[in-house]
Specification:
Layout: H1 2-21, E1 22-37, E2 47-52, E3 59-69, E4 72-81, E5 99-106, E6 109-117, H2 119-126, H3 136-146, E7 149-160, E8 163-170, E9 183-190, E10 196-205, E11 211-223, E12 226-237, E13 287-299, E14 304-317, E15 323-335, E16 340-352, E17 368-378
Antiparallel strand pairs: 1-2, 1-3, 1-17, 3-4, 4-5, 5-6, 6-7, 7-8, 8-9, 9-10, 10-11, 11-12, 12-13, 13-14, 14-15, 15-16, 16-17
Length: 379
């Protein structure tokens, strides 16, 4: 009897110990807003919407860690995006389309496998005031050139003092060819003190071996209650570079890449370069895009914040005059608590020389102004 009691006590202690070493968290964000936009079509009509918010894409997720001993942890993150105004799933209807990865974190660094952000997205997000925001008015130019999430990705991250290394490789999984459909990237961050510098290089290869490559460089610098942001991105796209259109089998380039559409994936949403947000190449020539960003965030009080930024991208195809896309926005954000805030924003976008192909505009290049009144809650 005494031995039985001792055994039960040991088992109970072990179970409690194991439980203490594991942690699983349910988390999420709701961000939604009223938005009024001018000149949404060639007739100059306006549109009033209740839509997904400005700052963050709404999502819910489960993440966790388990202590494996010896300084090593198992880690995972499953993150599902949704439209807060309709309840439908985001990211082409994928259940965990925002993120889905598992990995190990130890002295050698962090190694993760699954659907993850690319290194160019990580670098740009580090010097964008909203980490690349949710509303297309303030995020579309960045996502076009750096992409967002990539399937089938192995990612390695490690800090060496003030320097952080970020490596990623996304498999194309094309039969007989390890290059097509793949994406490779390397990022290096430098944070010796209050300021930060972020850089990355990333290259994607489509099913026809055409490439899209991007260089990213920028940083942040705090001055009292003000934080300054600045960055530059250069992107090149081969003529006809193609990804799969979200949720349909139509190529965004001149051909339908076989790597994106198959009998098991007729909608093309699980292809190697599908739903990454990368822009296609032009059908008329090689393209180059230079994207510039300047921004500032001011903590007026502990509960009130002001954000302003300006972005410009210049796209050139086969030496033609630059097509220019310019966006300026300002946001006033009031925090009731650390988890709940309301905001009012104004954004203005103008375009010139966009006549078709990459970055054409349905409204005939008319300037567009949007105002948003939104609420965000995090749990």
């Amino acid at each position: 009897m005494k031995k039985t009691l001792i055994a039960l006590a040991v088992l109970g202690s072990a179970a409690g110990h194991a439980s203490a070493q594991s942690n699983v968290t349910l988390y999420g964000v709701f961000d939604t807003a009223f938005r009024n936009s001018t000149n949404v079509n060639a007739n100059g009509d306006s549109q009033l919407q209740l839509n997904a918010g400005l700052i963050q894409g709404s999502r819910w997720g489960v993440r966790g860690t388990e202590d494996l001993g010896g300084g090593m942890k198992a880690i995972f993150d499953l993150q599902s995006g949704f439209n807060p105004t309709t309840g439908t799933s985001g990211q082409q209807g994928q259940l965990f389309g925002r993120q889905a990865w598992v990995g190990l974190d130890a002295g050698f660094g962090k190694l993760t496998f699954g659907r993850q952000f690319g290194v160019a997205f990580d670098a740009f997000g580090a010097f964008d005031p909203y980490g690349i925001g949710n509303a297309s008015a303030i995020s579309a130019p960045q996502l076009d050139v750096v992409g967002a999430r990539f399937n089938n990705t192995a990612k390695y991250q490690k800090k060496f003092g003030a320097v952080a290394l970020n490596l990623a490789y996304s498999l194309g999984e094309t039969v007989g060819n390890t290059s097509t459909g793949s994406t490779a990237g390397v990022g290096v961050d430098f944070a010796p003190g209050s300021f930060t510098l972020n850089s990355a290089y990333q290259q994607s290869t489509d099913v026809n071996s055409r490439k899209s490559a991007v260089y990213v460089f920028g940083g942040t610098y705090p001055i009292g209650s003000v934080k300054l942001y600045a960055g530059y991105t250069h992107n090149t796209r081969d003529q006809g570079f193609a990804t799969c259109a979200g949720n349909n089998a139509t190529s965004l380039g001149a051909t339908v890449p076989a790597a994106c559409v198959s009998g098991s994936n007729p909608n093309g949403i699980n292809g190697a370069l599908s739903n990454t947000n990368l822009a296609p190449g032009s059908t008329i020539g090689n393209g180059k895009t230079d994207l510039y960003l300047l921004g500032a965030m001011v903590d007026v009080t502990s509960q009130f914040q002001l954000v302003a930024a300006y972005m410009q991208n210049n796209t050139r195809i086969n030496g033609a005059p630059d097509a220019r896309h310019r966006t300026a926005y300002a946001v006033a954000d009031y925090y009731f608590t650390k988890r709940t805030d309301v905001y009012f924003s104004v954004d203005h976008t103008s375009a010139s020389n966009f006549t078709g192909g990459y970055d054409s505009f349905a409204n005939g290049n008319r300037p567009t102004t949007g105002i948003m009144l939104g609420v965000r809650h995090r749990f």
